[in-house]
What we know:
- 23% of the residues lie in helices and 25% in strands.
- The protein has helices at 3-7, 17-27, 138-141, 170-182, 204-213, 258-270, 287-290, 318-334; strands at residues 33-36, 42-46, 55-61, 66-72, 78-83, 95-98, 103-108, 130-132, 150-153, 158-160, 164-166, 190-196, 217-225, 246-247, 276-277, 298-306, 315-317.
- Strand 4 (66-72) and strand 5 (78-83) form a beta hairpin.
- Helix 4 (170-182) packs across helix 8 (318-334).
Amino acid sequence: MLLRELLALHGVSGNEGEVRSFILEQAKDLADRVEVDALGSVLAWKDAKVPNAKTVMLAAHMDEVGFIVQYVREDGLLRYLPVGGIDPAVCVSKRVLVGKDKVPGVLGSKAVHLQEPEERTHPFTHDKLFIDIGARDKKDALTKVKVGDFVSFDGPIVDFGEGLLKARALDDRVGCAVLLELLQGRYDVNLCCAFTVQEEIGLNGSLVSARRVQPDIGIAFEGTTANDTAGARVHEEVCTLGKGPTISFMDRASIATPWLFAHLCKLAEDKGLSWQLKRGVAGGNDAGSMQRAGQGVATAVISVPCRYIHSPSPVCCLKDVEGALLLGRAFLESAGSL
């Protein structure tokens, strides 16, 4: 599986070119045909083994959360805007890369000894933070970066614990890795693997792609928040690392089509796969836009649990990624009879 290669790439929403180029290179030898739509999503098609087959669209988004340079201060520090949902509490003192040249920087804040008493009792907001690239002043900074440059978190890919992996952009390079694996098979459905753009800022890419593909069934492969850490009460845990991929009954963007949700659950049980229900309804994903394409699409979501999602250091369990692949393959092998 090409997960680590995908995690090494950078692709903040609206700037997915690096990821797209890699996926195009991989998909050209796996798919029957590959195209890029108007927004920049990659559509990789695998034709059915049988005539008059249904069309299934699997979606995973190439983009990740990050930032964009808003303006450069006279002292050379960069003001930024978040791209996607990022809690400013996870940002202070974190390493970033700015622009196409990946200029190294640090997310900074006012020093604690300079803060007013009331500032110390409240977390910083994004407008109180800045990016320091080590520039002497504005003129110096503008020789290295410019307004509108995309900014991504920086950090190593680290294996630790019992089969855990720490890396930025697990959401949703885990899904992209699974789709590339699924493209290696041929099934009794016309398969379109859609590697979408701009999911983190409104599900934009999948909306355009699904209208183009007009599938009968759509499944989003996603990284989802786990919240299975210390301090979380049982009812606050969304899912648990190491217990398999999740199947969602609903989230903030969509409600799973009942018969498709039931089919996935039964399929996982019948195949003896480790899996779990997503117990919370936070967030949304590409299923929310796929289901509104054309005259409506039956949709469901298969997710890989991730701790510390939308931060510099998300964590997943590699067994859960493998489980998502196994469930996806089992679904495609069964989909021709649905």
